[in-house]
Amino acid sequence: MTNQLVISGEVVQIETLRYTPAGIPLLSFVLRHLSEQVEAGMQRRVECEINAMLMGELAEKSQLIKVGTHLNVTGFIAKRSLKSAQLVLHINTLNY
Amino acid sequence: MPKNILKVALDVPLDRLFDYLDGGFSVQVGQRVVVPFGRRNVVGVVIEKSDSSEFALEKLKTIIQVFDDELPIDPSTFSLLKFCADYYQYPFGQALLASLPKRLRQTEPAVSRKQYLYSLTPEGMGADIDLIPARQSVQRKVFAALQQSTLSESALKEISASWRQAIEAFRMQGWVHAEQVLAGFKSAMEAAPPPPLNDEQQVAVNAVTEAANTFKPFLLHGITGSGKTEVYMQILQQALADNDGQALVLVPEINLTPQLEARFRNRLPHLPLVSLHSNLGESERLKNWRLAQSGQARIIIGTRLAVFTPIPNLKIVMVDEEHDGSYKQQDSMRYHARDVAMVRAQRSKVPIVMGSATPALEAWHNAQSGKYTLLSLHSRAVAQSALPNIRCIDTTKQESTNGLTQVLVHAMRERLAKGEQSLLFINRRGYSPVLLCSACHWIAPCMRCSSRLVVHLKQGRLRCHHCGHEQKIVRQCPSCGNADLHPTGHGTQRLEETLKALFPTARIQRVDRDSTSRKEALNDILTAVHDNEIDILIGTQMLAKGHDFPNLTLVGVIDTDSALFSPDFRAAERLFAQLMQVSGRAGRAEKPGEVLIQTAFPSHHLFNALRTQDYPAYAQTLLQEREMAQFPPYCYLALIKAESTQYREVEQFLNFAFELARQRSDQVLTYDPMRAQMEKLKGMERGHILMQATQRGALQKLLAALTPQLRASKLAAKLRWNIDVDPMEF
Question: What are B8's strand-pairing partners?
Fold first, then answer.
């Protein structure tokens, strides 16, 4: 089954780097996306905020990420937790 | 006929004695012998000498050796152990051998090294230090020290590690005289003067003193800080004055023995005192045991294992904190040391004093019915010290962050500002009791027990607190693969982390089994608390008992609610006792104390009783509950417990036992086999049968008939089983 999201945007909120109990670094932030898209042949504006997170090596190299940083990312989406409807983007690759 | 057949008790799981020929050795009853048993040689104790055996004489083997230079064990110790072995359904030989120090269970002769005091002889006095060559620096140092005073071995050891050669050289010259001393008797200098007793204390001391040389049980009920220890000491002083009598003092925890020992030595320096507990080295334990057996030690203070020590001149028995669960042995012979002490006092015709702030309901019931004499201490010994003010914080109304409500945090901040100490009580060690996967709700389980693994974050380990299993913290959830796992719930380590973040400048110390595994660690911490080098203590029940911190004015209790609704029938009693103990830590000197309890059920009647420190009222309520539910002390219980890797085997055995028990007695109610509360433990599937009777005798009669049948059954051979008489829980 496919689950891939490619999106770019600006970091608007960032949490401090934390570690899982096994010691894997983990960074969560919110990405604001703003763009023009085509829908049913009509041009429109799109605005959204999406919860995203980085883990492992990506999180370790994330010192460059600050509020205001522009990112191009790809990853998959998953529920925040078992009983939550909220989605979180788990980032696999990122470019500044 | 010469009585040359010895009936010997051996450490084997058969409930009988074994016959051996004495082989011409002169052997006394109570002496240890080495005998051939199967292919091994083992140590046994001669219980009886007889002129006949049910076996043919030529089939009997001969003993190999007798330790005839040892004092024989007296028959009253045998008969006490025999009584206990029968009562607790355990083979006598195993019970007897297990009660001896380990050195006495080995086939090698058990010699305790003798200790000496060294002093200079008149020749030595007259000798000049310059007679010793200058290069013999050790000799010169030792000699100089001996000129000052008489020295013990430990004092010499501090001067030099190679002191023995020096002393040996002096002895050759006739300069030094060695005098054997009874080690363990650290003779204190002057007896500290006794503080004046208040009226209630005096009444208690007098009542027990008057009962000398008769069996009379006393329950000494005194609130925390009411000076029970002082009463013990004055009773001892009275009971052991002008005679060669000995006293047995039982304490619940090893940690508490050195403290009590020091107080006793300080106040009663003329009475040689030895301690007996499992933290002693084997040779020290043997030495102390022998000093008790020979009557030289006048006060024997120890944990539950000390209750079987031979004490020829017993004059009084004391059981401190008699409600404590650690008096019950939880494996091999499952005796309750308080109950054994009672039997012992009865047989020796001496008074027994059981002390507690929160007596066990059994004891309280007996005191109410007049079986025990109740002695109450209502006021604190230090007149200025008031009882702590106890309040509940409703966690359903007060928001808490990381397990701490604002009220509690505020109270701690106040103490910090005033330079006073706080104690947070949380009965769970580790970082968090559960490791949870938020994506699929998987929880890290122990593979060998029906329990969860506890997160120890700093060590990066998951540990089972039941079986000791330990593993690395998993990188990801084994069920769904998510790596973002959450430690959930609070343990001491997490609380420590939270507090360090809240109060970065405070000196915080955690006290649990993990932080005190080093031998002297706990003592070091306690000293630091007394020296005011610690502001906030975080502790498990280790800290609840007996410790006296004058500058501690706040106790916070976190997360006790699970015990309020436990299926264990003693849970409420135990929780009350524990909270009462912890509360007693606050404000023991002239500063008033405060206790804050975080709970979701602030109106629970347990907390109401706690607020007024009214043990009698709460005991009354609990006793009514017990009576309604027909639980002890209103009935007598026994459990047949079985465990095996296959539950099927457990079930078969228990069904067999159940049928037997049902047929044999209609005065005992035998319940159907069921699974233990902890279904699986250390890889074993567990089950039990509960038996209940209103008469102790009826239950004993049934067990006495049932046990041999169970021992003989083929089903029993396939699994592990045991009988627990008067179980603490089921």
Answer: B18, B46
Contact B548, B381 (CB under 8 A): no
Return the number of CB contacts < 8 Å for A and B: 38
DSSP A62: G
Q: How far does A72 lie from chain B, in Å, by closest CA?
A: 23
B472 contacts on A by Cβ (under 8 Å): 22
Look up the CATH number of the domain holding residue A16.
2.40.50.140
In a domain, B72, yes or no: yes
pLDDT tens, B352-373? 999 998 999 999 999 999 999 9
Alpha-carbon distance B211 to B218, whole Å?
10
Structure tokens that stand for B506 in this block? 């405070």
Question: Which residues lie closer than 8 Å to B411 by C-beta, 6 or more apart?
Answer: B422, B554, B556, B594, B596
- Of the given ranges (B22-36, B110-124, B427-441, B711-725), which has the lowest mean pLDDT? B110-124
| pTM value > 0.90 | no
Which of these three, B134, B154, B181, is where a domain ends? Answer: B181
Q: Which of B440, B441, B483 sits opposite A20 (nearest CB)?
A: B483
Q: Under a CB-based contact definition with an 8 Å cutoff, are residues B435 and B488 in contact?
A: yes
- Kindly indicate the confidence band of residue B491, based on its pLDDT and cuts at 50, 70 and 90: very high
Confidence of residue B589 (pLDDT cuts 50, 70, 90): low
How many Å apart are CA B576 and CA B557, to the nearest integer?
12
Distance from CA of B445 to the nearest CA of A (A): 16
Give yes or no: residues B224 and B156 share one domain: no
CATH of the domain at B709: 3.30.70.600
Query: Per residue in B444-484, pLDDT tens?
Result: 999 999 999 999 999 999 999 999 899 999 999 999 999 99
Q: Which residues lie below 8 Å from residue B159, measured CB to CB, with a gap of 6+?
A: B138, B141, B142, B145, B151
Mutation for B interface: A82, A86, A87, A90, most B CBs within 10 A: A82
B157: domain range?
115-181
Q: Quick one: DSSP state of residue B187?
A: -
Average pLDDT score over chain A: 94
Any CB–CB contact under 8 A between B474 and chain A? Answer: yes
In angstroms, the CA B143 to CA B165 distance is 12
Residues of B in contact with A53 (CB under 8 A): 484
How close A8 comes to chain B (CA, Å)?
A: 24
Out of A23-27, B451-455, B574-578, B610-614, least confident range = B610-614
Predicted ipTM?
Answer: 0.90
Selected residue of A20, A24, A88, A89 to mutate for chain B interface (largest B Cβ count, 10 A): A20
Same domain, B87 and B127: no
Q: Do A79 and B439 touch (CB under 8 A)?
A: yes
Cβ of A82 within 8 Å of Cβ of B475? The answer is no
Which pLDDT does position B384 carry in this prediction? Answer: 55
Alpha-helical (H) ranges within B503-537 are 521-530
Instruction: Give the C-alpha separation, B676 to B695, whole Å.
Output: 25
Residues on chain B touching A20 (C-beta within 8 angstroms): 475, 483-485
pLDDT tens digits, B508-545 = 999 998 888 887 888 888 889 989 999 999 998 888 77
pLDDT of residue B730: 83
Q: Are A22 and B438 within 8 A, CB to CB?
A: no
My answer on whether B349 and B233 are in the same domain is yes
Q: Helices H, strands E: what count in chain B? A: 22, 33
At A43-52, the pLDDT tens digits run 999 999 999 9
Residues whose CB is less than 8 angstroms from the CB of residue B291 and which lie 6 or more positions away in sequence, other chains included: B182, B184, B272, B274, B297
**Number of compact structural domains in chain B:** 5
